[in-house]
Amino acid sequence: MEKATADRQADASELGGVLLVDKPAGITSHDAVAIVRRAAHTRRVGHTGTLDPFATGLLVMLIGRGTRLIPYVDGEPKVYEATIRFGAETDTDDGTGTTTRTAELPADGAIEEGIRQLTGPIDQVPPAYSAKQVDGTRAYAAARGGRALELEPCRVNVHEWTILGRDGADLRVRISCGGGTYIRALARDLGRLTTSAAHLSALRRTRTGQFSVDDAATLDAIAAGALPVQSLRAAIPSLPVRRLDASELGRVGHGNPIAARAGDLQAEGARIALVDDEETLIAVAERAGSELRPKLVLRDG
Length: 301
What we know:
This protein is an alpha+beta fold. Helices cover about 20% and strands about 35% of the residues. It has seven helices and 19 strands. Strands 1, 2, 3, 4, 7, 10, 11, 12, 13 and 14 form a ten-stranded mixed beta sheet that branches. A five-stranded mixed beta sheet has the order 15-17-18-19-16. Strands 5-6 form a two-stranded antiparallel sheet. Helix 3 (about 110-115) crosses helix 5. It is elongated and about 70 Å long. The relative contact order is 0.18.
């Protein structure tokens, strides 16, 4: 058993893989990465999207050479289950901050109208305590120093809200959205749109693209030696696949283009996963005229 675990760790470190992690509350995403680095015996670990320390849920991590695949991972939509608490707004837009104003609780109808206005493409002002930068200064650093920055709105896409229930001041919702959306800011803005005040009191990410937190391992299990690493092919499940023959493997391994086949995608710039006979991901290529040109090579020729 110990040898099998060691073999998996060696494979993850050398070749790379995908690891789904269920982050607990109270630690940063960087803390979670550090635990996985120790378990996998490699510093080459990255993730596809940060969670705030108070939040829980899915972190999609890539290990070894797989860290180079992060820009190609389809991380949308992101799905969250959140609790929005009405009656108080905070400086951090969540329950870890200081109350800045209070207001009466809104009616259900006002909440429904506010949600309607916060659905679709919207311009969202990031939280004052966020990693956004202005002239090289992080917003959270400026806010902690008592001089919050003036942050410009960013266009984000909120696909759908589902109301899961309301208990007095607390509204439980499921939100599906695009990357870059701050759920804390949605809570803040919902409070303002209902002429009330609100902040985010709980947050759990349940999905990222095609990945589910139901398939994720806990950090306790990972620290204890369990490392359920998936193949790198699992990181880009939506891409079509082209199986390479022996001569093509050699060319792709050296970063050289190969001839496109009749069954390959025809659209210029379309991406395709290149694999060997064992379905191991070798590279990601793009269509360029009559060729498939490797954009990312994960295994040497």
